[in-house]
Each structure stands twice: as C-alpha cells, then as structure tokens.
C-alpha cells in the first residue's frame, strides 16, 4: 500500500512539475500574437490565408527601404484592368525602384510564355526580371524577401485569382535563420538565371 501511495505522489508531482515546465516554455518561446506565433522575442511566424497574403505583401512592400527580391512561378500583369491586385503590387515595385530600392525578380518560363506582357512591362520600367536557369527546370517557388529581414513564401502566385479568389496559404516570417537561407536560395537562382 505504501509503495502505491509513493508512486502516486511521484506521479502527481511529476504532472505538476511537467505542467509548470510546459507553461514556462510556451510562454517564453511560443507566444501567440495577432494572427501569428511569436517563436521568441526576435522571431515570428504569421500564417497568411487566402486574401490575407495580398494585404501583408502590399504592406510589407510599402515599408521596404533597401531591397525586394522575388522568385515567383507566375506573375500576371493585366494592362486592361486598373484595379487588378497584381498591377498594384507591380506599381508598388516601380515606386520602390524609383526610390532606390534594389528590386530583382526571377520568374519561371510559364510567365514568359503565358504572360509575356508582364515581362515587357517590368523591363520597360527598368525593373530587372530574369528567367530561371533553364526551360527544362520548373521554378515553382513563390517567395518575396524584403529588406533582408522578412520572407513571405507559400502557395500564392501573383495572379488575380490566387490573390483574390483561390484558397491559398503562405507564411510571413522574420526568423533570421529562415531569412538567411531564403536569401542564399535567391542568390543561387539569380546567379544562374537567364536574361530576357
């Protein structure tokens, strides 16, 4: 009987101690913020669902001071539709470029073949846009890096349907290790990219 009581006390104390450790770790490293998760004091993750992506990208682009690097499978400029969300994003990139922000874009051949007006529009505004390293390679990445400090990546292409109608999911983060890896990834793709 005494062994069962001792075992029960150890079990209860272990549960209490485990609960305290769990609460401490959660409160220190995983704090929920508005719409996101604070991993620690310097690193956050924010899930961007459906239309939330457009507002997040537009807002983050608007605060860019140094650089915007984009790898995007499909970018669809629509010259006939003034309020198209992609057009607004591209106009924002133009404003940034005119302010001296380093803007670079790599797209897959799909953009060039299906929406070449996008390519010529960007080139006409002196925004460097290039194709990935080969037509035999599909660059299905959808990634935006702002000021070497924020990465937004996920399923959203820059098309009106992806930004306004589709079910899409992306992540926005400022976690240094992820941003660093994304920058390295972009640099490798840019270094091997093709001129148009």
TrEMBL record:
This is Phospholipase D/Transphosphatidylase. It comes from Desulfurococcus amylolyticus DSM 16532. InterPro entries: PLD-like_dom, PLD_domain, PLipase_D/transphosphatidylase. Gene3D superfamilies: Endonuclease Chain A. One of its GO terms (biological process) is lipid catabolic process. GO terms for molecular function: RNA endonuclease activity producing 5'-phosphomonoesters, hydrolytic mechanism. The lineage of its organism: Archaea, Thermoproteota, Thermoprotei, Desulfurococcales, Desulfurococcaceae. It comes from the Archaea. Residues 135-162 form the PLD phosphodiesterase domain.
């Amino acid at each position: 009987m005494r062994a069962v009581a001792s075992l029960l006390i150890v079990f209860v104390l272990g549960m209490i101690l485990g609960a305290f450790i769990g609460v401490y770790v959660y409160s220190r490293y995983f704090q929920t913020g508005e719409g996101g998760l604070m991993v620690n004091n310097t690193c956050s993750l924010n899930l961007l669902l459906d239309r939330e992506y457009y507002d997040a990208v537009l807002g983050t682009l608007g605060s860019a001071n140094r650089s915007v690097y984009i790898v995007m499978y499909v970018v669809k400029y629509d010259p006939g539709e003034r309020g198209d969300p992609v057009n607004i994003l591209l106009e924002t990139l133009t404003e940034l470029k005119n302010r001296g922000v380093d803007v670079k874009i790599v797209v897959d051949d799909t953009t060039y073949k299906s929406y070449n007006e996008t390519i010529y529009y960007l080139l006409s505004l002196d925004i460097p846009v290039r194709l990935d390293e080969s037509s035999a390679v599909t660059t299905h990445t959808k990634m935006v890096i702002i000021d070497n400090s924020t990465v937004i990546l996920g399923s959203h292409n820059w098309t009106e349907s992806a930004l306004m109608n589709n079910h899409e999911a992306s992540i926005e983060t400022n976690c240094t290790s992820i941003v660093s890896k994304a920058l390295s990834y972009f640099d490798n793709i840019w270094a091997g990219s093709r001129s148009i």
